[in-house]
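--- STAGE predict ---
source: upstream dedup step, 1 unique chain passed
mode: sequence only
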Amino acid sequence: MRRDDAAGEPANALPPDYNPLSEDMIIMKHRFKLIFPAVLSVALLCLTFSGCSTPPPETSELTDQEAPAAEETTQSGTSAARSAAPARKPAAAPAPAPERVTTRSISLPPGTPVAVVTSSLISTKTHNTGDTFEASLDKDIIDGNYVVARRGALVTGIVADSDPGGRVKGVATLSLKLNRLTLADGQEVAIATDTYAVQAKSSVKKDAAKVGIGAGIGAAIGAIAGGGKGAAIGAGVGGAAGTGAALATHGDPAQVASETSITFELTAPLEASIR
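--- STAGE serialize ---
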């Protein structure tokens, strides 16, 4: 080992306060100053590239949270659209086919009998010419095998003539005929029939009796007053009085009692369509 000439010690001898750890620390600090910037730059570059390539986790979580909300909004919008749209009405059921009605044409010739029963009293005292009366059909009216009008159907008639009668010799007369008939299906049709006429009982005997009684009473009064001549005069006066009484009164009325059976005949064809 080389020693210093002046001191008599080696030339490369270390100073007494030399500390090897301090030298190592200096070297490490120097190296750290050189390496730290490079490491920092690399870290920054990595962070930069990772930020560009991969989205942040928060964004992904937000997207996951927003997805159900968007789906819910879509569903609510669809429901609102459905509720806003007018509900479809069910198609109307087809109208039922009209019931087919079968009709039959009938034609009754003149002379066809129409038997009726009167419903009430018809009299020259209560009915005038042109008044109406009612009756019911007494027998079915048949056309071949088809019933045109049934027994009991309503029949309407008219008083063709109502004459109370003349004085003394005249008698009351009443004429009736039918003008409407109710058919088996309920419809009423016009008909034309012959006339049924009745007259009151003769009142000649009653009138003669009235004249005779008057003459007898007059003769008795005349005989008492003046004998035979007076009796003759009284008879004439009494007879005249009896005749006047007869002339002042009418005969009995002509009438048709209630529930009287009468058979009329058609004078014109009866044509109709019956259901």
